[in-house]
Amino acid sequence: MTDKTLHIVGGGMAGSEAAWQAARAGLDVVIHEMRPKVGTFAHQTGKLAEMVCSNSFRSDDDEQNAVGLLHWEMRQAGSLIMQSADRYRLPAGGALAVDREPFSQFVNDTLRALPNVTVTEDEVSSLPDSGHWIFATGPLTSPALGAAIQAETGAERLAFFDAIAPIVYSETIDMDVVWAQSRYDKGDTEDERRAYLNCPMTRDQYEAFIDALLAADKTEFREGETAGYFDGCLPIEVMAERGRETLRHGPMKPVGLTNAHKPDEKPYAVVQLRRDNALGTLYNMVGFQTKMKYGAQTEVFRMIPGLENATFARLGGIHRNTFMNSPTLLDGRMRLRSRPHVRFAGQVTGVEGYVESAAMGLLAGRMAVADMLCTDLSDVPVTTAMGALVHHISGGAEAKTFQPMNVNFGLFPPVEGLKAGRRGRRDRYKAYTDRAKADWQGWLSKAEAPAPA
């Protein structure tokens, strides 16, 4: 091991992005990825940056949406994850959805082709005493490493349960019932405006569907486990338990859609499917994460109009995710306070989502480069999406109630003099993004300026 070697544990979104940023800066990088030698519940391959849940990076609107702003900031910083996402983009209205297989293959091949990047198939099960390390093991951190983190920090690992949505073969969808339309016809092209398939429900069909959801056999938890779900990824049956109308005002809301087969009939609820690959042979059930048992899933989901004869390429599932109480454990440079040569990045730090995880990998990689090359790197402005996230996980959040968080404008400092409430929202969000872009470009220009001789 040399002082110019950066070790990254985990080859997911965060680890891959950290490796890219560090390798581009000239460091030797070793990625320790335990897959496929040691598998997980959700992963199917040993490729870097494998997508295991949705294929969506969510909104790409960099003027009115915080995650779209995060996309913009990452692109400005030369993100490999965003390069691949843009290359393998699929029509998804105003969202950025990607063709998951070539997306992962591109990231995998690009990193493995770099002469200063080595990928090893080994499980790191302890925290090292020396060297330069980034742990980006994600929410599926191995039990052995999780125990080591717990022993080091003396803190209980927090846990929540993340559910995976089913994927349907498009040839088994009844297009005499289903129609193609993005909500509010959003999108710049015809493909974008027709990016989603919509399954309409009458009130009676919706009520029967809710009854079946509530009565279906669910996955049982092991002794000692608790169902502390992250609110941004709730299983649909848990939402139904919170009230019969919850789904109709959530993933099954009928607004912004007109049934092309029956334009005069307003659906009571709508199930949306989003294209999951470039060929259009697979569709993801949007917002339909579930912990129902497999047999129950096929029975319940075939109650949805248009899916009566559906065949599933993958059924939904549930797995335990872990994350750290980062506000008490990490400093502003994402270093473990008790071992400053160890950084953490990605979902294990308590950010939620592909893009947020990759963004924290990007920052961790750049921060490691600055430490190892002895260059100055100022704090990331909290007015940026990147800065808001890293501030949240390193002390901005309340430790007692800390839970995984998507990027959102609630994490940003207010802009003075703007109207509060829904009516002033567009102007307020535009002010947030304008300020963030200027501050991010300013930070990047200083971070990438040559060091003084």
Automatic annotation (TrEMBL):
Domain of life: Bacteria
Binding-site residues for FAD, renumbered to this chain: 10-15
Reactions listed under catalytic activity: uridine(54) in tRNA + (6R)-5,10-methylene-5,6,7,8-tetrahydrofolate + NADH + H(+) = 5-methyluridine(54) in tRNA + (6S)-5,6,7,8-tetrahydrofolate + NAD(+); uridine(54) in tRNA + (6R)-5,10-methylene-5,6,7,8-tetrahydrofolate + NADPH + H(+) = 5-methyluridine(54) in tRNA + (6S)-5,6,7,8-tetrahydrofolate + NADP(+)
Chain segments annotated as transmembrane: none
InterPro entries: FAD/NAD-bd_sf (IPR036188), MnmG-rel (IPR002218), MnmG-rel_CS (IPR020595), MnmG_N (IPR040131), TrmFO (IPR004417)
Molecular-function annotations in GO: flavin adenine dinucleotide binding; tRNA (uracil(54)-C5)-methyltransferase activity, 5,10-methylenetetrahydrofolate-dependent
Gene3D superfamilies assigned to the protein according to its UniProt record, in alphabetical order: FAD/NAD(P)-binding domain
GO CC terms, sorted: cytosol
PROSITE patterns: GIDA_2
Domain MnmG N-terminal: 6-371
Position of the signal peptide: none
Enzyme class: transferase
Subcellular compartments: Cytoplasm
Keywords: Cytoplasm, FAD, Flavoprotein, Methyltransferase, NAD, NADP, Transferase, tRNA processing
Cofactor(s) the protein needs: FAD
EC number(s) stated in the UniProt entry for this protein: 2.1.1.74
GO-annotated biological processes: tRNA methylation; tRNA wobble uridine modification
Main localization (coarse): cytoplasm
NAD listed as a keyword: yes
Primary role: NAD-binding protein involved in the addition of a carboxymethylaminomethyl (cmnm) group at the wobble position (U34) of certain tRNAs, forming tRNA-cmnm(5)s(2)U34.
HAMAP family for the chain: TrmFO
Family under the similarity heading: Belongs to the MnmG family. TrmFO subfamily.
UniProt name for this protein: Methylenetetrahydrofolate--tRNA-(uracil-5-)-methyltransferase TrmFO
Organism, scientific name: Maritimibacter fusiformis
